[in-house]
Amino acid sequence: MSDEETVDATPEPASLGSDSDGRQQPKEEEEQLLMRISKQRELIDGLPPGDTRADARGRAPHQRRLGQLEFKYQMMVERKRLASELLKFQEVYGDPYSEPCLICLEDIRVNVSEKLTLLLFCCGGFVCESCARDMRESGVGLVKCPLCRESLDGTEAERAEQLMALAKRGVVWAQSNVGKCMIHGIGGFEKQEMSGLEWINKAAAQNHPTALFQLSHLHTEGLKSLVRKSQEKANELLVKSANLGYSFANSFLARCHYLGRLGFEKDIGEAYFRASVALALDGTDEQAASTLGILHYQQDLPEPSLYLACYYTNMAADEDPSGGAFYILALQNLLGYLHDQPVLPGISDAPAIFFWFGKSRDKGAAQARETLKAWEKVGQGFCANCFKMTET
């Protein structure tokens, strides 16, 4: 492959956890990529320094190419690191519970994340999200259950009735869902906190990770006279849920260790490990991505990466009002590393900055709103065509 060929340097988030066929990238590919990176650096070193805008423009395409190669290499290494962290987790806590998808027969870790399966309220079965997506996109659709052929177009009340029937039959994920719906009065269920707590306790007694996590939250917040506040009990349940492989519990635990909150000591190493495990289990976990991105951006790690700071903060940028801010800062750092001058045609970070500050403002972030107002006021003092200061 020549250096002029395009590099696909932006893998899908879900691909970070592990390769779909379980194979690792060959060592030879890493070595070849490192050789290409070295040659690209030599090429850049042989160009005139980017002290002038003309020289900086001449160097920019080659620097961009270097960035593509380095990013691809770091993503390759990161994918292997996440797989290694998951192996460490499994050696200590065991492999999370799995069942075969009844369509593709692949083993699916059904309790890792709600996003990995399509639960079927009609019969209590499930299909993996990959098969569900294939059916949606094939034109066949999901009008009927692929397992029992019952209609999936029921009303909310009918679905609630089906879910309750499954819970009474002993289906543990249904018991957890019924409990959550009853406590909050959602999903076609009336608000019945005591009954809801009973269902969650039934599921938690069977070590269902989601139920354990819900019960942990209830002990943190309290539930009237039904659940007393106890951070010690909440933390015990949270750790148990995380150790059973629930991705969100691991990413939540990572954030607790990073911030040193809710009774957990500040521990960067444990935060890094738990966030890595969460993302290895569920490659779309935005909270885990946010923690990893911040750790790289803040250089809290032995080998922080500008590329991974940018990648992970971008994954999390749409999740919360301040999420775009870290991505903007990480992007500025990366562009500062790659290019001699930040304001060049085709490499300016201004469009991304305005886009993400706008997203944050729309989500209610006051700082983003005030920043945009200040920039707008400054911008009014310059010509939109030539960017020279306007006369007053």
UniProtKB/TrEMBL annotation:
- Region (Disordered): which ranges? 1-31
Domain RING-type: residue ranges: 101-149
What keywords are annotated for this sequence in UniProt? Answer: Metal-binding, Zinc, Zinc-finger
Task: Please name the SMART domains in this protein's record.
Answer: SEL1
Q: Which GO terms describe its cellular component?
A: cytoplasm
For whether the record's keyword set contains Mitochondrion, the answer is no
Domain of life the protein comes from: Eukaryota
Q: Which SUPFAM superfamilies match?
A: HCP-like, RING/U-box
Q: Which InterPro entries match?
A: Sel1-like, Sel1_AlgK, TPR-like_helical_dom_sf, Znf_RING, Znf_RING/FYVE/PHD
Gene Ontology molecular functions: zinc ion binding
Q: Does the keyword Zinc apply?
A: yes
**Pfam families found in the cross-reference section:** Sel1 (PF08238)
Q: Which family does it belong to?
A: Belongs to the sel-1 family.
Query: What is the name of the protein in this document?
Result: RING-type domain-containing protein
